[in-house]
Amino acid sequence: MSKPAEFPEQQQESQPGKQHKMHPEPEIIRKGYKGAEKLKDKVVIITGGDSGIGRSIAIHFAKEGAKVAIIYLSEDKDAEKTKQEVEKENTKCILIKGDVKDEKFCEHAVKSCIDTFGTVNILINNAAVQFPKDSINEIETQQFHETFQTNIYSYFYMVKNVLPYFEKGDTIINTASVTAYRGSDHLLDYSSTKGAIVSFTRSLSKMLAKKNIRVNGVAPGPIWTPMIPSTFDSVSDFGQDTPLGRAGQPSEVAPAYVFLASEDSSYITGQFIHVNGGEIIGS
């Protein structure tokens, strides 16, 4: 007997996708998760923080006592929902709407965080786009530029703007992907940007180590987020080819960011945590 589909077929017309239109919606916080003030009074900026992994990170960080600045592109309803969930944890949250491809916007976003909270301690680069194509000839120059500008240029812009405010012990966490390590025959430009993020993270970690600013990353596998129905024609078997036989949920990824942002990982820099359902890949 064939394995039943984990997700019903569904598509969305554009990225970054709408979480409130997904069925089922992603699991953002596992029942029973208890914060332990690991990030008490820290201020975090999260790009792509309105939904999916970004929303889960925001709420987990709030449960650990952090104040949260969420950068998002256009999904107002999802962003407002995330803000509400963050504020239920008795902490503050601001929403900053704009396009991280724009260097001036990234400068504005960091300034907005500083104007509100007075500081920033953690940067999480998480925003991304992907446009599946089966042939390099199908990848138009405009798509190529958009993928790189969103997925890696923005990381550079955000880091450059937060560093003047960073102090000893502050942290940067970059979101890569399993595709950076094993490649992807239908995500050539996307996986290329994720490989660039790995090298960027490792090089930046060496650059900032003398300042005791740690730089690490998370490389998720197939995770059920709005990006999936907004980019793939079929989702019914999404993630079923992993060793665990299923897709992951944002709630299973975000705790890795908590670990890397907290003192629990004080002797870790330049490294990636692979949250991918058991796929063994090169480090």
Task: Explain what you see.
With 283 residues, the protein is an alpha/beta fold. It is built from seven helices and seven strands. A seven-stranded parallel beta sheet has the order 3-2-1-4-5-6-7, sandwiched between helices. α1 packs parallel to α2, α1 packs across α7 and α4 packs parallel to α6. It is globular.
Over all CA atoms, what is the radius of gyration?
A: 18 Å
Distance, first to last CA: 36 Å
Helices and strands, in order, run as EHEHEHEHEHHEHE
**Strand percentage, roughly?**
5-15%
Which short descriptors sum up this protein?
alpha/beta, 13% strand, 7 helices
Lay out the secondary structure.
Blueprint: E1 43-47, H1 52-63, E2 67-72, H2 76-87, E3 93-97, H3 103-117, E4 122-125, H4 141-162, E5 171-175, H5 179-182, H6 188-208, E6 214-220, H7 254-261, E7 272-275
Parallel strand pairs: 1-2, 1-4, 2-3, 4-5, 5-6, 6-7
Helix pairs in contact: 1-2, 1-7, 3-4, 4-6
